[in-house]
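Two quick folds needed for the group meeting slides. Do the first one here.
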Amino acid sequence: KNCAGCSVRNASIGFQRGYIPFAGESGLANVLEVKEGFCYGFEWPAEAQPEHPFQAPNVWPPAEALEALGSDWRRRMMALFNSTARMSGEVLAALAESLGDAGAGLPALCEGGETIS
C-alpha cells in the first residue's frame, strides 16, 4: 500500500522507521530483496532531539491499520522491544562478569545502545 506518512527514510545512511513496502528495502543497491516489514525502536519523547543519525521517533501505522492490528498492538510491540533491550543488558552483564577484569568496561560501551537502531 502506498501510504504517505507511514515511513521515514534516510537513504544516505540506510535508516528507516515505519512501514517498509514490499521490495522497498535492500542491503545492497543492486539487489532486490523481496520482503515487506515494519521498523521501529526506542520510543523517543516528542520533544527529544536525536544525538545520533540512527535515532528518530517511531512512525506508527495510521489509525485504520491499528484498528485491524488490535487496540494493544503498539503497546505489545513496545513491550517486546523493551524486554529485548533489558535481556540484552542482562546477557552483557553476565558476559562482563564471566570475563572478570577483561570485561569490566564492557557495560559502559553499550550504554544508550537501545536508542540507536
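Then this one, please, same format:
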Amino acid sequence: TPPESDFFIPQVKLHDGDGMKRKRVLVLCTGGTLTMAPDPEKGGSLSPVQGALTEFMKKSMLELQNEKMPDVVVHEYTPLLDSSDMGPPDWSLLAKDIKANYLYFDGFVVLMGTDTMAYTAT
C-alpha cells in the first residue's frame, strides 16, 4: 500500500489514470516589454514586434512542450499597445475576451506593460 501522503481523499490517488486532460491556459498579450525584439524595419532597435512573444515561447520555453505542463495558447492583440496608450475600451476588451473563453481554459494570463496595470486590475 502506498504511503498515506500519496492520497488526497482516502483510497483515491490524485491523477492516477483518472483521464485528466492537460490544463489549458490562455495568454492575452497587449504589448509591453515582453513583446520587444530587434525590429529590422527600425535598424535593429528594440520595439514591439507582432509575434515575437509567441515565437519566443515556442522556441525558448521548451518546458511548455512537456506533457505535464499546461497547454498554452497565446493571443497577441493587433496592434500591440504600450500600456500608457490603453484605456477603458481596451480593458473592457480584455474582460470580454476572458469571459468569452472562460469555460474553455483553466487559467488566464494577461501580459502588458506596467504603466496602467493598476487601472486594468480594478
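Slide caption for protein two: The two ends are 49 Å apart (CA to CA).
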